[in-house]
């Protein structure tokens, strides 16, 4: 307890030295966090689907955020800052607690992504191109999505129970528990983007991932880590180190998404040279018989499956303006 009181006195002195510049920078960081995540929330809602977002990315992200929020709440420096609010001015108290507020806002925003992931999971009326849907034949199941949500909830409750028990019965162990949560959060954050990197690479498009969000968060993550590190110092490495890892991994996903969403000039020219196909407006141009229509019973059973097979065959047939054996085609004498 004496050690905590000494730390509290030192933290109170530091809070009294907080300037307006650092205060407004912290406010801007909070606004930036909210703005960047709102871009992601809007992306999912506007597309009407969470397609393209790996459920394991959501699982690792939420559990990492749970651990990080628990870490900052039980960290001795944070508890000392809260205790100092009775010793310093309201402005100095608010400035000292902005670090906790930053992580809290980020935790809430990522939790909203989990909620939207469940609400808009594989919506049939989603505003998604058919080409993107066909490129994602192995979508996760609803059972997987529910399992992700359950694990996130269980882990969050576990952190709350253990933290409360230590705070009431063994406060001397809170520092070790905070470091444990910090290491856990950093470990989860280090692998958080691996399943998303694989999903994005497999789909070859960003899906419901918001590129503007990543453009804001990638450099903002390093700035956030620097701001948090300035408050907590090297003793709080378990709190700000996770954001360095996250920003680096997110930068990899951002580069991949930019590569797939903005292809090279040659790829754009090749895509534009293809005839546009729309299921509702483009007439079917089928070989007779085609690879699917000749054996429909092997590819489809229901009417919807038959339609999909014929549509797929139509795409292959669009653009063949002249049959091979028509006058002027292959096999003709060239005499009209």
From TrEMBL:
<dbReference type="GO" id="GO:0016020">
    <property type="term" value="C:membrane"/>
</dbReference>
<dbReference type="InterPro" id="IPR051415">
    <property type="entry name" value="LAAT-1"/>
</dbReference>
<dbReference type="InterPro" id="IPR006603">
    <property type="entry name" value="PQ-loop_rpt"/>
</dbReference>
<feature type="region of interest" description="Disordered">
    <location>
        <begin position="269"/>
        <end position="292"/>
    </location>
</feature>
<feature type="transmembrane region" description="Helical">
    <location>
        <begin position="206"/>
        <end position="228"/>
    </location>
</feature>
<feature type="transmembrane region" description="Helical">
    <location>
        <begin position="174"/>
        <end position="194"/>
    </location>
</feature>
<keyword id="KW-1133">Transmembrane helix</keyword>
<feature type="region of interest" description="Disordered">
    <location>
        <begin position="309"/>
        <end position="336"/>
    </location>
</feature>
<keyword id="KW-0812">Transmembrane</keyword>
<protein>
    <recommendedName>
        <fullName>PQ loop repeat protein</fullName>
    </recommendedName>
</protein>
<keyword id="KW-0472">Membrane</keyword>
<feature type="transmembrane region" description="Helical">
    <location>
        <begin position="94"/>
        <end position="121"/>
    </location>
</feature>
<dbReference type="Pfam" id="PF04193">
    <property type="entry name" value="PQ-loop"/>
</dbReference>
<feature type="transmembrane region" description="Helical">
    <location>
        <begin position="142"/>
        <end position="168"/>
    </location>
</feature>
<feature type="transmembrane region" description="Helical">
    <location>
        <begin position="240"/>
        <end position="260"/>
    </location>
</feature>
<feature type="transmembrane region" description="Helical">
    <location>
        <begin position="52"/>
        <end position="74"/>
    </location>
</feature>
<feature type="transmembrane region" description="Helical">
    <location>
        <begin position="20"/>
        <end position="40"/>
    </location>
</feature>
